[in-house]
Amino acid sequence: MALKHSKTHQTLPSKCVIWTVSALLCFPAVSPAQPAAVPTLGSPAAAELSPSVERRLGEAIMVQGRRDPEYINDADLSQYLNEMGRKIAAFAPGGAPQVDVFGVRNPVVNAFAMPGGFIGVQTGLIVLAGAESELAGVVAHEIAHVTQRHIARGLTQQTQGGHLALATLVAAILAAMIPGGGQAAMGIAAFGQAAMIDRQLGFSRDAEQEADRTGVEMLRKAGYDPNGMALMFGRLMNASSLNEGRGGGVYATTHPLSIQRMTDMQNRIRQYPSGKFQGSDEFWFVRAKARVLQALDPRALRQALDQLEEEARAPGGQAGAGESAPRRVAAWYGVSLAALARQDPAAAAAALQQAQSFKISSPYLDLQKIDIDIANRQYAAALTAAQAGNKRWPSRRSFALRVSQTLQGTNKDREAVTFLQAQIKRWPNEEPDFYKMLAVSQDRLGESIAAKQSMAAYYERVGALPAAVTQLQQARAQSQDFYVQSQIDGQIRTLTTKISDDRRLLERFK
């Protein structure tokens, strides 16, 4: 679903629907009715834009987006959103599509789907959600736009109509793919172009209903409460009416939430068998973190701190008792995050102690303790805690990142290299920062060629292929080893071929 945006803080979302190129080149009760059948929009296979082409277009856009200041490079948030998205997508009709869900640092309530299954969720929407199923309901709706090929159809129509905005964005992406062309590309893609493309991709009423119905079915099958979608859309309608003209209801105003859609959704949900649904406690921690992440200035951070303290002190019985306990623990965690963001580690430690008094185990609390130790330059204590957390929570990449960070902070670069290589073997593509951290330690150890190869791997995984080629060329020039040179030559050929293929693919959109 394409979403329209406004300017400055209320126009920040315009950078998100189709990411701009420049930032990256620098380095209520309703009457019942019978639910209608899903609207027939034609076979998804009929769209001219193939899934592989659509995916590559999305990847090209995301190369720019990952360097935008609003893009959230946070392992916990990314892991949570992607696990949610892929859990829902597993029940997509016709098979699970490739889905990548990422966070966007913006208090405006919004979410959007881009070409190729890339889905952005703004922090404002996460904070607005009153339960995990509500957030999952929006994610399911966006995934449905992907599975039903609505974006592919919209892009095909734009190409056929010769719309200027898409052509301009593609020209900027192509310029960025030429070595030394970054500065030229910066002057081509403006935020207005992204907003224009967004408007051009607006979906019809039938497409929105199709996404509702497909989304709520995936939501239910994935184990989330299907009422979450209806509840969240009700919140979005209220946000739209309360914030009209102030940017607070972007999702609803660009995604018309009519009474007819609400009625259809509610009636469909009533037909499902009743059941018990349990949301994860992690949602509350992600929500608290999102509230702090979107506070971009001291005033906003102070406001976030006040809101979190109010939530943390809300009536709910004694510590550890009642259903409100996880939410209150998460609120205290958020208070600690906000205090640390204000460079007050003592206040952060005091808030963390309040959270720990509930005796609820959470990796987020353990991670916060490590970050407080790092802020206090207590690297030895941080390293011990990070290693313990990595053993206790082995599936969470955040602990592996903290272990690496603290090893480097204590000048244990040889240990860091060994540790990072093991993490890369385990997670070869999920966490590009492992490669960048590996390059830092290798460079400190005087292993310049290996460091450049690691940086090339990092750039390759974030999609910056020309930068990856440059790193490999520099590594080859330094090497005197025939076998290393041959290996690097093969990598350069592979990447340059991919760049050429991508150029040819994008030319069709000019």
TrEMBL record:
GO MF entry, a single one: metalloendopeptidase activity
Keyword terms: Hydrolase, Metal-binding, Metalloprotease, Protease, Zinc
A single GO cellular-component term on record: membrane
Origin species: Zwartia hollandica
UniProt enzyme class: hydrolase
Gene Ontology process terms (BP): proteolysis involved in protein catabolic process
Domain Peptidase M48: 79-268
Cofactor: Zn(2+)
Protein name: M48 family metalloprotease
EC nos: 3.4.24.-
One Pfam family in the UniProt entry: Peptidase_M48
